[in-house]
Design brief:
By secondary structure, the protein is an alpha+beta fold. It is 34% helix and 37% strand. Strands 1-5-4-3-2 form a 5-stranded mixed β-sheet.
Length: 83
């Protein structure tokens, strides 16, 4: 089953700043799409554990922090930064 991937407002704001400052905006856009696609399927097994309930996934040139709510089939991206 697929998970729904949502980005917190703060993460979206961070992504917008990264995109505006990027030399290769297409790479940022592609990485964001890859993150969404990857986290939609079995997200608890993606990336590495940072702390209880928080994981990190790197898709160059981005890295995101995310939480998984299995019961709701929801992934929440809480932060993003340039790698």
């Amino acid at each position: 089953m697929r998970f729904t991937v949502v980005w917190d407002d703060e993460a979206l704001n961070q992504l917008a700043v990264i995109w505006l400052d990027a030399d290769d905006r297409a790479a940022v856009t592609s990485a964001q799409a890859a993150i969404d696609a990857e986290l939609a399927m079995a997200p608890a097994s993606k990336g590495t554990s940072v702390s209880e309930g928080l994981r990190r996934l790197v898709k160059s040139p981005l890295q995101v922090l995310f939480e998984v709510a299995d019961a709701d089939r929801l992934v929440r991206v809480t932060a993003v930064r340039a790698e």
